[in-house]
């Protein structure tokens, strides 16, 4: 079994230290586990690249953006290489992930999303891959040409470490929710998650609070080691959470829908309602099981069906739109002043 560590901060910074503490503890807990890690800000990806060969196309060929290179076929050569395939292989070969990131402007540093949007997300959606493989078995001609990577379907668990210098909860509010969105398409079970605050200076986690955060990172690593290899419904969440947390992603982040006191989980979309308990405290009461949650298989399948239905509706409107191609060409050719760049001077095209 292999754990991939994902560091998303400064070289040698707090997030890297805590990641190494977690990976070290995981190996000590289970000597059969191997580990490796990647520093996301060091990854090289060309601008506007074509999706990798074999990347799943959930649009079923209806959305050119899912398959086209916006910056030309020679994009990789022009911009000094492409680490996407190596990084994707690292993700797909792993049995577990530990993400460790600093918090910038309430959320994880943007390097991570910028990189993972190019290789994961809709390109590695487990429900879509499963559907394509089923269609292959049925001999459906509409799907026989599609290539998908069966490694997407491997059972996996993951944990998150977030590190920030602020002491107030508002400054870290989006850190964990955003991390959840990065890997839920692969149907990964989250087994632990922590936010470490008041440690902004590189290395501060070693000195602040008696090294408590380093110890907690080790516990997180052991929790991952204890659940690695288990299927989604068998793996157990071992991290923190209040009695009112979402039952699917274990977070306390909600958004109100107002009508009938309805609410939704910001991270995964699980539905519920606000109610007043016997002490007079307003609390969420969550729907369970999590049928519409992005964390659930059913919720992901619902999203795929929604995408396909909307693609059909879009195409009908395009077909009915007078002079659509001429109008599209006009707007793409509209010339407005562009900011001059030093390195990438090309104009992306679809």
Automatic annotation (TrEMBL):
Domain NADPH-dependent FMN reductase-like: 1-124
UniProt lineage: Eukaryota, Fungi, Dikarya, Ascomycota, Pezizomycotina
A Pfam short name: FMN_red
InterPro entries for the chain: Flavoprotein-like_sf (IPR029039), FMN_Rdtase-like_dom (IPR005025)
Name of the protein in its database record: Flavoprotein-like superfamily
Sample GO molecular function, one term: oxidoreductase activity
Transmembrane stretches, start-end: none
């Amino acid at each position: 079994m292999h754990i991939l560590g994902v560091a998303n901060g400064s070289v040698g910074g707090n997030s890297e230290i805590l990641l190494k503490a977690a990976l070290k503890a995981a190996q000590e807990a289970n000597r059969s586990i191997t580990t490796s890690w990647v520093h996301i800000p060091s990854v090289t990806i060309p601008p506007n690249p074509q999706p990798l060969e074999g990347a799943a196309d959930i649009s079923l060929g209806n959305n050119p953006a899912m398959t086209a290179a916006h910056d030309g076929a020679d994009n990789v050569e022009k911009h000094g290489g492409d680490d996407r395939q190596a990084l994707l292989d690292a993700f797909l070969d792993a049995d577990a992930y530990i993400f460790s990131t600093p918090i910038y402007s309430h959320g994880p540093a943007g390097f991570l999303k910028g990189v993972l949007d190019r290789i994961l997300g809709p390109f590695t959606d487990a429900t879509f891959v499963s559907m394509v493989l089923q269609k292959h078995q049925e001999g459906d001609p509409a799907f026989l040409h599609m290539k998908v990577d069966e490694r997407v379907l491997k059972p996996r668990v993951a944990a998150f470490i977030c590190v920030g210098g602020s002491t107030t909860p508002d400054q870290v509010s989006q850190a964990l929710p955003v991390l959840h969105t990065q890997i839920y398409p692969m149907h990964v079970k989250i087994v632990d998650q922590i936010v470490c605050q008041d440690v902004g200076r590189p290395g501060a986690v070693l000195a602040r609070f008696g090294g408590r955060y380093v110890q907690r990172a080790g516990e997180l690593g052991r929790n991952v080691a204890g659940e690695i290899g288990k299927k989604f419904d068998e793996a157990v969440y071992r991290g923190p959470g209040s009695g009112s947390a979402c039952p699917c992603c274990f977070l306390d982040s909600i958004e109100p829908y107002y009508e009938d006191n309805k609410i939704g989980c910001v991270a995964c979309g699980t539905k519920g309602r606000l109610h007043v308990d016997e002490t007079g405290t307003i609390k969420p009461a969550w729907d369970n099981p999590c049928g519409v949650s992005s964390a659930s298989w059913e919720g992901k399948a619902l999203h795929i069906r929604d995408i396909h239905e909307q693609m059909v509706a879009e195409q009908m409107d395009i077909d009915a739109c007078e002079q659509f191609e001429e109008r599209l060409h006009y707007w793409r050719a509209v010339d407005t002043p562009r900011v001059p760049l030093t390195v990438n001077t090309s104009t992306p095209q679809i």
